[in-house]
Amino acid sequence: MKAPANCRLIGRWRIVEADLWDRAHLNLCGPATLTITTQGGDIAFGALEAGLEVEYARDSIGFRWQGSDEGDQVEGEGTAELLEDGTIEIEFAYHNGDEAVLKAKRSDFFNSLLSCSPSRALSKRRCSGSAQAL
């Protein structure tokens, strides 16, 4: 589904906290990020890297995701909502597994780079065995 022109979540977000994991885990393999584009997106934190299929609204998104976590194929779903303070709250669920609430702040540095290149390589994730985002 194509994003509406007024979706305020499009861009790159830095995941800064979670109710289940500490910051060291979030940034285990590189910066914990959520990237939302007009054609989907991706999320990466801990050893997870996943591609997103996104449904867009002005101040929120719903998504299904598929990817790799420590070399295992995983999938799930989630939502992200823009809060009054400019952060987003992400409800993230593994299929038949953990459910977490994440908080993210807009990453201005990465958003400026995205205007030049939307490549996932910008994050330079360090974990091996990670699959490409689907």
Characterization of the model:
- By secondary structure, this protein is mainly beta.
- It has one domain (11-112): Lipocalin, CATH 2.40.128.
- Helix content is 8%, strand content 48%.
- It has an eight-stranded antiparallel barrel with strand order 1-2-3-4-5-6-7-8.
- It is globular, with a radius of gyration of 13 Å.
Q: Which percent range fits the helix content?
A: under 10%
Main CATH class: Mainly Beta
Rg, Å, rounded: 13 Å
% residues in beta strands: over 45%
Instruction: Please provide the count of β strands.
Output: 8
Chain oligomer state: single chain
Topology pattern, helix = H, strand = E:
EHEEEEEEEH
Strand count, sense and barrel status of the largest sheet are: 8 strands, antiparallel, barrel
CATH topology: Lipocalin
Spatial separation of the terminal alpha carbons: 16 Å
